[in-house]
């Protein structure tokens, strides 16, 4: 009997008042449509958020790449400046070594001590003492026709 009652209850809801069934279907359809609309809106919002994040990350990436390029250029310039300074240091060290060997050789030839420096100070250089002239000084005399030209 219980099965008969269930059948009658279920048959009553299915075939019962057609207005209630149509109203339930209509409400369910409206609810489903609203749910689908909300789902599409969430999906659209997520897509917009992800697109915005992609744009932000691409912009950040460009800034980082530009910063790296700037630093690489600065590094290259500094490296070339360092190479120039290394070459100059080597050249100056070679010159210093050469000058030291000349001084050592001169000291060996003249003997250790002040003899070498004494001989150097005795060498007269007219360019070093321009007020001491080694030639006679003759005054210049103007000629009578010097302004005629």
Automatic annotation (TrEMBL):
Organism domain of life: Eukaryota
GO cellular component, one term: nucleus
Keyword Lyase among UniProt keywords: no
Pfam families attached to this UniProt entry: bZIP_1
Region (Disordered): 1-43
PROSITE patterns for the chain: BZIP (PS50217), BZIP_BASIC (PS00036)
GO BP annotation list: positive regulation of DNA-templated transcription
SMART domains registered for this protein in UniProt: BRLZ
Compartments where located: Nucleus
Database matches in InterPro entries: bZIP, bZIP_plant_GBF1, bZIP_sf
GO molecular function: DNA-binding transcription factor activity; protein heterodimerization activity; transcription cis-regulatory region binding
Polar residues bias (residue ranges): 1-12
Protein name: BZIP domain-containing protein
Species this protein is from: Lupinus luteus
